[in-house]
Amino acid sequence: MFNLKFILDLFTKGFYNEEDNINLNQIIIESKYKKPNIYIPLVISSCCFLLSGYIAFIYSIWIYFIISLITTFISINHWRDVRKGPRRTADLIGAKISFLVFFLSGCFSIPNNILWTFAVPNCVLMVILYYLSNHFRNQGQKIWIYIHFLFHILVAIEQAVVVYCIGNF
């Protein structure tokens, strides 16, 4: 028999643990009672993922256009009203798939001079910001939102560079 919960639990295993659930519960409580939504910066930074979609559209690279569009809307949908459930799971899965596609594409499409002087350092900084935002979130410090905002911006720039290089080289 088809068990959707089992499949989702299996696919999302390792994305969060019990400690993360406690922190997520705090985020959920905050998002319900704070008006305006304190996660609006993350909604706005999620919109930046459309940059790579726009570039992909200009160059008629439809798979990257579709991936960018889907990633953007999934991310916006999660941050506009943070809750545990399918929207959060979709964001976690979509972000990881998008990262893999753009990372692997970038490894093969970005010229070496750009790859080593910009793309690799930017990717390292993205990973650092991602883990810093999680660290500060786990400590209950609100600065994590702005660190994650910067993470989103760097992801958007990196994706745009990948699509631009695919379209031009």
Structural commentary:
- The protein has helices at residues 4-11, 18-33, 40-47, 50-58, 62-80, 86-109, 112-138, 143-168.
- The chain is globular, with a radius of gyration of 17 Å.
- By secondary structure, the protein is mostly helical.
- The termini are far apart.
- It has one domain (37-168).
- The chain has 8 helices and no strands.
- Helix 3 packs parallel to helix 8 and helix 6 crosses helix 8.
- The model has no long low-confidence stretch (mean pLDDT 88).
- Helix content is 81%, strand content 0%.
Shape: globular
By secondary-structure content and strand pairing, the structural class works out as mainly alpha
The main sheet comes to: none
Strand content: under 5%
* Number of H- or I-type helical stretches: 8
Cα-atom Rg, whole angstroms?
Answer: 17 Å
Topology, number of strands: 0
Distance between the termini: 49 Å
- Topology as H/E string? HHHHHHHH
Uncertain runs with pLDDT below 50, 5 residues or more?
Answer: none
Mean pLDDT: 88
Helix share, percent = over 70%
Assembly state (oligomeric): single chain
Domain count: 1
Topology:
Layout: H1 4-11, H2 18-33, H3 40-47, H4 50-58, H5 62-80, H6 86-109, H7 112-138, H8 143-168
Summarize the structure.
The chain is mainly α and 169 residues long. 81% of the residues lie in helices and 0% in strands.
